[in-house]
Amino acid sequence: MGNVEGMSTETVPPTAAEDLPSTAPAATPQQDTDAEVEERSGYRRPAIDVPALTALLDGKYAEVRNLVRTNLAEYAGILTDAEEMTRDEFRERVKDVVVEMASTGQTGMGFPEEYGGGGDIGASVAAFETLAYGDLSVLVKVGVQFGLFGGAILQLGSKEHHDAYLADLITGKLMGCFAMTESGHGSNVQALGTVATYDVATQEFVVTTTREDARKDYIGNAAKHAEIAVVFAQLEVAGKSEGVHAFVVPIRDRDGGTLPGVRIEDDGLKMGLNGVDNGRIWFDGVRIPRTALLNRFADVTPSGVYESEIENPNRRFFTMLGTLVQGRVCVGGGGINAAKVAIAIAVKYALKRRQFEATSEDEEELLLDYGLHQRRLLPLLADTYALHFAQEVVAGQLHDVTSGIETSEHAKRELESRAAGTKALGTWHATRTIQECREACGGAGYLAENRFAALKADTDVFTTFEGDNHVLLQLVAKGLLTDYASDFEDLDQLGTVRFVTNLAVETVIEKTAVHKLLERVKDLLPGGDQWDQEAGLLDSDYQLAMLRFREEHMLSGVARRLKRGIDQKMNPGEVFSRVQDHVIAAARAHVERLVLEAFVAKVEALPDGENKIALRLLCDLHALGVIESDRAWFMEHGRLSVARSKAISREIGSLCRKVRPLADDLVDAFAVPPEMLRSPSLLG
Amino acid sequence: MGNVEGMSTETVPPTAAEDLPSTAPAATPQQDTDAEVEERSGYRRPAIDVPALTALLDGKYAEVRNLVRTNLAEYAGILTDAEEMTRDEFRERVKDVVVEMASTGQTGMGFPEEYGGGGDIGASVAAFETLAYGDLSVLVKVGVQFGLFGGAILQLGSKEHHDAYLADLITGKLMGCFAMTESGHGSNVQALGTVATYDVATQEFVVTTTREDARKDYIGNAAKHAEIAVVFAQLEVAGKSEGVHAFVVPIRDRDGGTLPGVRIEDDGLKMGLNGVDNGRIWFDGVRIPRTALLNRFADVTPSGVYESEIENPNRRFFTMLGTLVQGRVCVGGGGINAAKVAIAIAVKYALKRRQFEATSEDEEELLLDYGLHQRRLLPLLADTYALHFAQEVVAGQLHDVTSGIETSEHAKRELESRAAGTKALGTWHATRTIQECREACGGAGYLAENRFAALKADTDVFTTFEGDNHVLLQLVAKGLLTDYASDFEDLDQLGTVRFVTNLAVETVIEKTAVHKLLERVKDLLPGGDQWDQEAGLLDSDYQLAMLRFREEHMLSGVARRLKRGIDQKMNPGEVFSRVQDHVIAAARAHVERLVLEAFVAKVEALPDGENKIALRLLCDLHALGVIESDRAWFMEHGRLSVARSKAISREIGSLCRKVRPLADDLVDAFAVPPEMLRSPSLLG
């Protein structure tokens, strides 16, 4: 094989003597051809053991994932139902499928065994993730019923509530909804306008929608199926507001009729997920018994005394919001698995469809043999693997914290941050990957039968629900800046600015978790030009050092900028506004480092073999892709020379060519049931 | 107003002494506060004259655009029809609206007056673009009927065909389709598998689908409404293949029944545009008269002799494909105008919705007062203006070429290239903008009533139809590399590689159109550090010089890499595959330069005044955004220092803050009818 890049520059005319653009890696005289490099390095194409790779991806929950795969194939008709049924019919169909799947135990794995659950949070996350291979209305309906509604009863309620509701909600006999968001308040839950006032005379709470934009909105299961709502409202006891609490409020009778004082409106057609009945709810003086307060963390005595073991009201609030963590872990995993479906279809199509004569005049070229097509799809495939393994880590942490295996406050906070960050990157990855894959499948990708229509429309809101991605990254940054200080969760934006600026900047920097990691970084990236020759681009220590350096630098930069703004007597809100994109960038840098660490650790732990070689290629492709996409930053901060920046782009091209012959096996290893790939006019 | 960025770095601890990340512009000691800079430069907030700005945007076709706005408001119910009707009902509704709009003259402006048209191509493009404010099934149905079908009859047919069809198709009485694409061949039209064989005995053509993947596919109007298809097929005369030609083939009788030998299948549900009836067509020995050949450029005599004034078969083919140019101009404009709807909604929502306390403890902050939100939306607004003016240029060129005002071959080729490039950038811009705007509107953005669902689903295929964007950018690059040589259109990828490599590289570079522009570039970007201090970031000569330099450098790099690959005896297809991302990058750089030139020229031509000040801010924001997004490349090629790269990011932040108070007026100037903004739960 010749190499267009590996030639001398001596014949280049004077007007074009510079190196070639990095988007188009060029030659340096000392560069060898790929073939030479491969021969010298002993590189040869690995033969992937697909079942073994699937087993690695499935991890400890292979059995659970296979149960879900079987169920998905069993109910494959739901994909066409989504297209052919009316909205009402499809909502009923989705509900039925959810209830039938519940009977297999698939959806109740996270609940205590005494109520019919599986008693294993990790298994419940694995089941949910795998469900994302199929129709996503089913996925989201499961999330609403068992994750949000069921999770709130389980985690915010006490035994009394568990006894009353869990057994029936696990089977789907009792459907409920999670009524947190209001039209006027999504991310800022603390400012909700729904109020629950304790009436000591009747020992009841009176739930009221106090203004129009305080109506509950976008609530899944509300428009049609929920009998019960877990309602988040400002608790008022004896004229004092105690902050947001959760209450069990019946909203429908068994016949589906709306109860007195409750008004429900359908949110109507949505971009996607039309098998889920989202709606709006207004409460007009709805009375519920005192015991309807989900009282695990706070209670009101019959005589009207508010009691809680958590004294700080903000802390109490954020403890209750902890119920959202599992939802975030699940949504992130759902997004990543939806991306797998898209990339599997696009790769398989690119291995079937030919277009234009290129290397031969007799036959058109396979799409995946075009360099650009490789560049479009294969880094996304590598990122999908990386995020899969990062997701495995956060799901494991969730399991440990929720199951009481890990009990430290710090671990809980780190979990919240990691769940937020993985959710943000995983769902953005889904949006981007599905879009690129649709375009890479041309006009056929636009037909509903080929899956992208549903994947794109259904996953679109993943970047918003269970926490807007930008708000979640701010949460990540706040945790980093305060080193998950005991009160970090209470801090709103003003509070964060004040907190940070009350510390010496050095303290902030020393407190950052990443700071400890920097010793190795200094060895690997000593600055100047020296390191430039030393570390190999395919050395994962080098790749990690780059991401660690960036994270630490961005984070300390944020701290300094916040502090300086305050020193200059600026309004803290304005300081925050101006530093905000820096805050988001720092959080993203942090999460990208965690993702790479997860992938590297997974690869290193593997026994030597073909699969390890293949995954190492993918891991390198992922790592260099992350560095390349922010190479301007690295150059601006003296950690990447022009020559090395171009070398990275060249290496990515070379890695794509090496991954190309492995691509089919790599997507097969996801083990997406063929019925879920569907795509008759792409793959048929 | 204080400035968080303008402080000394003396107090910075040693571990963090570098400049701050560019994503978060930092201080340099000499930097003044915005307020000081603004005072010294005489900057003050301009007061936009919205009607005057609308008049500027509408240009010479204000009257036409207002007619369309009136029609859109008249038929505003179509937006809800799209949600509430069944697919069959909605298809009929869309057809009816198209026919009713036709009766206003809106859709026939590009046809000769003698057949009832308006005789003004430019007006027809303006009408089409404006129609993109409304339901996009209507837009696309109009495009299929009047642009593709009608355009083929007009441009490929002779008077006989005009007399037979134009009057009826202009009124919509005769519906037709444009049957070019096949399941197995989209971009590579030259390889179509449908064959039309001349039977001298009966003086008929026999049209046949020769293999399964040669069925016509994704054909708009085919599934339901077309009586007639313009079918692109390989013409065979006397045993010899003469290449692809277009034929008029009746496919349905007046009652809608499929004619003998024709089989039609519905493409079924699509991601969007479900008011358009796309379908598949198979032909089994369908006989059509000899006169059914659209014979403007080639004909077959009764006795079976093939005749054409264009000798080169490839040239002939590409001349016929010229009918696609108008479609590309229209789709690009449609995408840009759909993006206007999205950005108008997102900006207006961000000026209404508050979230989190930031600068005040009493009131939550408007979304658009957050730095990040400004950074997300305002550069997209600036890009939308830039693309609008670039679209105006290409639409003007189309008018001049099609109306015979401009007749040179070179102008035609440049038009083809510019139409391809503007279509690619305009439609990608639509995809990106609609996505960002949806996310910026949170969960409410997911509800169908708030427009993004339809905008996103309907525009998605714009990046694919009328030419896949990547393939179109390759066309642009080919034109640049060959300086629109007389035979450049014939060149497939192999041919292009050979063509380029047969020239001396210097010749290629000298031939590039951009090369002539480089003298000014050398003055402005002399290299080294000197220029770094000299040119102001807000100097449009500097901005243009940067884009011209990049374009020329990328283009000559492509030429060199192609040539070197051949010199090294690589397979030309493999050379092309490896250089392909570089080819695409060069083409994109070219089009971005054209877009900026169009915006700069428009602003410079304006009389001094408030609107000019406002547009200059937007133009700077656009220009620096383009440079920033490729700043790694400029650093890698010695045309941007680290300090200046960071200064650009800072300047963008500052420009966003200046554009922020103008944003409402800037989106109002698009004059999107309020009925088309809709969005009751965002703006109501």
From TrEMBL, chains A, B:
Residues 1-12 have a biased composition (Polar residues). It comes from the Bacteria. Keywords: FAD, Fatty acid metabolism, Flavoprotein, Lipid metabolism, Oxidoreductase, Peroxisome. Its cofactor is FAD. Gene3D superfamilies: Acyl-CoA dehydrogenase/oxidase, N-terminal domain (1.10.540.10), Butyryl-CoA Dehydrogenase, subunit A, domain 2 (2.40.110.10), Butyryl-CoA Dehydrogenase, subunit A, domain 3 (1.20.140.10). Coiled coil: none annotated. Residues 1-43 are annotated as: Disordered. Residues 543-680 form the Acyl-CoA oxidase C-terminal domain. GO terms for biological process: fatty acid beta-oxidation using acyl-CoA oxidase; lipid homeostasis. It holds the Pfam family ACOX_C_alpha1. Residues 63-173 form the Acyl-CoA dehydrogenase/oxidase N-terminal domain. Residues 322-481 form the Acyl-CoA oxidase C-alpha1 domain. Its EC number is 1.3.3.6. Residues 177-286 form the Acyl-CoA oxidase/dehydrogenase middle domain. It is found in: Peroxisome. One of its GO terms (molecular function) is fatty acid binding. Signal peptide: none annotated. It is an enzyme of class 1 (oxidoreductase). InterPro entries: ACOX_C_alpha1, Acyl-CoA_Oxase/DH_mid-dom, Acyl-CoA_Oxase/DH_mid-dom_sf, Acyl-CoA_oxidase, Acyl-CoA_oxidase_C, AcylCo_DH-like_C, AcylCoA_DH/ox_N, AcylCoA_DH/ox_N_sf. Belongs to the acyl-CoA oxidase family. This is acyl-CoA oxidase.
